[in-house]
Design brief:
Pfam families: GAF, HATPase_c. The chain has about 400 residues and is of the alpha+beta class. It has nine helices and 13 strands. The strands form three sheets. It has a six-stranded antiparallel sheet with strand order 3-2-1-6-5-4. A five-stranded mixed sheet has the order 8-10-11-13-12, with helices on one face. A two-stranded antiparallel ribbon has the order 7-9.
Amino acid sequence: MNAPNDSSEAEFKRILEVSQLDLDYQSLQEMFKNLTELASSITGAELSLVNILDSYWQWSIAANGMDPVVMRRENSVCQYTIGEKDSLEVENFRDSDQFNVPLDDKYGYYFGVPLRTSEGNAIGALCIIDEVGHSLDKDQQKALKLIGAEIVEKLEGMKKMAEVNRRFHDMHAAQRELGYDLRGPVSGVLGLSKLAEDEEDVSVLKQYLNLSGQSSTELLDIISDILEKNNSEFLEYAKASITISELKAKLLALYGGLATSKNIDLNIELLPGNQQLKFSRQKITQISGNLVSNAINYAAEGSEVKVFIGLKNSGASDMAKLSVLVEDKTTFLKQEAVEDIMNASLQAKEGLVGEQSYGLGLKLVRHLVLEMGGQMDIDSKEETGTKFNVSIPRYI
């Protein structure tokens, strides 16, 4: 049982797929409730959990026999399960200093199966936990693996639906742009036809322009219908959007407890501007969440992490950019580390990843920001700490 290599290219691809799923960790309990209940029923275990592992944390998105929890990834048993091909069984995790599982002392038995996607990445694990002495026979283990496969199928189905919605949005955005591009010229032709109607000496031209005017009117009506239809459909797409004020609430809900566990004051401030302007939710919560998570993970205990969220180019809503600045005055990155984060490599240099340096989560942030046509800057000084600043274009 070996600890995963947190700096490898394979690990980067794994956490990238986790981010691409774009999961709302706090809203999936009901979706997977029946499957966790089934896992407990088949195995006779008191507890069953669906855990997703990102760069720093293990998120229980569904649980039976207990409430979903968040814990540091390095303290979990599932961090080893995702490195296994088939499954992992631990007769008593209390016997090992590797684990620090926040459960009653009576629990010690663990059996987990990796949640491996069609891309081959283990994004998390389905596990059952019970008292020491519990065990599973071959049929129970097989059933647990089938439940794990069903969980992966559901998660990948959610991802495909999100992609369909994104393509739908892009298609209608193109239609909207086409409509606005055509509306002006068509209106010009219509205006010209009106002028030509007053020219009594050019009867043939007048008849032609009159027909042209009728066609232009019909085309203009069609374009208006397209724009009106798209406006209503965009209201539907808004369900996949998020405002700045909603983003603040989401970050506090996800990471407030993690900050408290390290006695860190997580302070999120909204800058002046239109805080109800909607942005595409895809990747924005992952980007901002990874920045906040990274800051909490590496900040000194008892310190403060400041987050500033606002708009750039807020005067023109179509040109607006979301700006997220995360500041931690207790962390310092050497220039070599900053350069490594900002380069295109999917693998971190040895010696730069760790508690006193950084994790692949920052390289993931840069990757996602560039994918969205945004920009990321890092300012790190030993005297003043580190600031991460990203700006992301608005897509709605």
